[in-house]
Write a structure and sequence with these properties.
The protein is α/β, with parallel strands linked by helices and 259 residues long. The chain has two domains: 7-199, 2-enoyl-CoA Hydratase, Chain A, domain 1, CATH 3.90.226; 203-250, Lyase 2-enoyl-coa Hydratase, Chain  A, domain 2 (Orthogonal Bundle), CATH 1.10.12. The chain is built from ten helices and ten strands. It has helices spanning 31-46, 77-94, 110-116, 144-152, 154-163, 169-175, 184-199, 203-215, 221-235, 239-249, and strands at 7-12, 15-20, 52-57, 61-63, 99-103, 106-108, 120-124, 128-130, 167-168, 180-182. It has a six-stranded mixed sheet with strand order 1-2-3-5-7-10, sandwiched between helices. Strands 4-6-8-9 form a four-stranded mixed sheet. Helix 1 (31-46) runs parallel beside helix 2, helix 4 (144-152) crosses helix 5 (154-163) and helix 8 (203-215) runs antiparallel to helix 9 (221-235). Bound molecules: ligand T3D. Residues 25-26, 28, 61, 64-69, 73-74, 77, 80, 106, 108-110, 128, 130, 132-133, 135-136, 138, 141 line the site of ligand T3D.
């Protein structure tokens, strides 16, 4: 195990960019790197000064998933998944602010799952997405089997999982897997520009919108409308609601503060 940092967190105003940073291993993840990532994702989640997060990779890949060279990677794998993969995916999905994946290069295995757990994805023209698991006789994990069919449907998800083929940017865009395709050196700046825009939006309302849209994936219409009512009751009490209405009536831009 190395003590070298395996990711970086950089702040620019209310935007935090998390860069997976093991470029020589295509940002593949070890237990130690995942533990460090969990710690920092939780800190970003709790930091009200951070109002949007961007996740990207250093070098030519986004993330190649599990580091297949890690000794004993598959020992007690169910516990390892519960303790190190699940909290990352839960942190991304449950982050009370938008999370944008800037997919600068290959996203494979659990690395693709991390990108799928984000709210939005921008992708480099040169990048590929790959459910690599079946190539090594494994099943998709890190939430991939829950997240992917919700984005592209069961049959397409099964085909990508069963074949483990590389999905290029044009196909990913057509499938709705990513929202935008850009040249590699423009992906991160574009994601950060969108992040700055979203960070200036009413953060609590966006957090509750995330919660509602996720909840909609398994609840009934009645349950969903009840949760909408509860969260709207909280939203109307926020400073940002009052500011949004005042700005509308005064015909000016709203200055949302995320509270
Ligand atoms: O273990 C558990 O806890 C269970 C959980 C599992 C979760 C998972 O994520 S399982 C899936 C693991 N990931 C993979 O199977 C992906 C393997 N990698 C690839 O398929 C390809 O490398 C990529 C599609 C990511 C990129 O392809 P390409 O052609 O751009 O690069 P390459 O030539 O295949 O790889 C470049 C180097 O990175 C190469 O090393 P070398 O020959 O230059 O010394 C390759 O071995 C290394 N590399 C790529 N992926 C990994 C890796 N080394 C370790 N672990 C990797 N995942």
């Amino acid at each position: 195990m190395t003590d070298e940092p395996t990711h970086r967190v950089e702040h620019d105003g209310a935007v935090a960019t998390v860069t997976l940073d093991r470029p020589d291993a295509l940002n593949a993840q070890t237990r130690a790197s995942r533990r460090a990532l969990i710690r920092d994702l939780r800190a970003l989640s709790a930091d009200s000064a951070v109002r949007c997060v961007v996740l990207t990779g250093a070098g030519r890949a986004f993330c190649a998933g599990q580091d297949l060279r890690e000794p004993d990677a598959l020992e007690n794998v169910d516990a390892v998944i519960r303790e190190t993969y699940v909290p990352i995916v839960e942190s991304l999905v449950g982050m009370p602010k938008p999370v944008i994946a800037a997919i600068n290069g290959a996203a494979a295995g659990a690395g693709l799952s991390f990108a799928l757990a984000c709210d939005l994805r921008y992708m480099a023209e040169e990048a590929v997405l790959m459910l690599a698991f079946s190539n090594i006789g494994l099943v998709p994990d890190a939430g991939g089997t829950w997240l992917l069919p919700r984005i592209i449907g069961y049959s397409r998800a099964f085909e990508l999982a069963a074949t483990a083929r590389r999905v290029g940017a044009a196909e990913a865009l057509e499938l709705g897997l990513v929202g935008r395709v850009l040249p590699r050196d423009e992906v991160l700046p574009a994601a950060q520009a969108l992040a700055a825009e979203l960070a200036a939006r009413p953060t609590l309302a966006l957090a509750w919108t995330k919660r509602l849209l996720r909840s909609a994936e398994h609840g009934s219409l009645a349950d969903q409308m009840e949760l909408e009512a509860q969260l709207q009751a909280a939203a109307v009490l926020t400073h940002d609601h009052a500011e949004g209405v005042a700005a509308f009536l005064e015909k000016r831009e709203a200055r949302f503060e995320g509270r």
